[in-house]
Amino acid sequence: MYDETLLAIVYRGRPGTTRELATLAHLSPEEAEAAVTGLRAQGLIDGSGDELRYLDPAAWAAATVAARSAELRTTSQEALGALEQVMSDLPTLLQHWSVGEASENPVPVVTRHGKHASEDLWYETARHDGGTLCAVLPQLDRFLDPSLEWTARFIRALARKDAVRVIVPTAMVDTETAILRLMQYRAAGVRFRLLDAPPSWFWVDGDQLALPFEWGEHRPTSALGMRNPALAGMAQAYFDQLWQRTEPLTQACEPWTPLLKLMRRGITLETASRRLGINPRTGRRRVAKAMEHYGVATLFALGVAWAASDSGRPQFTQGMPPDWSGVLESV
After folding, report:
1. Could you tell me the domains of the chain?
2. Distance (Å, whole) CA 123 – CA 118
3. At what angle do helices 57-74 and 76-100 cross, to 10 degrees?
4. Using an 8 Å Cβ cutoff, are 77 and 98 in contact?
5. pLDDT 10s digits, 195-237
6. Model pTM score
7. What does the pLDDT read at residue 20?
């Protein structure tokens, strides 16, 4: 991977030649030449020989995604990691780029600060009369108070979109109250999915993308917004990969889901029941209800049906946890 400090110097100072880079970064000629070779190999700068030319971060991100597209079909987990690395690098790169850019900026960046930076950015810059919004919201507490006019205003705004998909933490549905409050958004057409550990707050709305100043923030107080089709497309691809790894909100509410999730990891029904604070007899009844719900007669079929109900789940066609094959007799 590239040297972040060196790239910041390059983007801010815009040296025209390798020799100028050596002077600017206090490097020997050999070190400067090696650094330029590495940055060119990764597509972060252009030019030939001693001359340096620059590509904006959008071009770099688009090229990186194109190079990874084949991997997405064969090694999706590795490719997801690569996309996340690009996403996590973007906020810093864009900040450095905006300092060094003196001409028309090909990636105009809008910033907002304060405790409502994230929603202020969306209200002020995104389209509200249609289009598709995709968002990862690791902290959603302030959106769930039905007594606030702000909450009602936000629901009305989302209802005007053509489609809204939102990823929230699985821990959000640990109470019936939280689930009911999410349902008020579902009535406005919002589709929720659950992820155990969302990587960071961000959203994509058409060709617009919003990121936190620091990747990984769950409730940013400083946010970057930009309108760029290449960057938005990259972020949309990353969001779609995350979406495939999520769990439907309705499935998470089913009483047998916690049991099946533990059993998928190889934990016995009795142990899983005790971990959840229920009697094993109750656990067996819940598994029996799940079999009835999915219309299956064996535990193996239940595992397959439950996995197939969400295409993002790992399939149970191989490696059935040891307890599943013998639970039928006790159900």
Report:
1. 4-100 (1.10.10.10), 109-249 (3.30.870.10), 254-330 (1.10.10)
2. 9
3. 180
4. no
5. 888 989 999 998 888 888 888 888 888 888 888 888 888 889 8
6. 0.57
7. 92
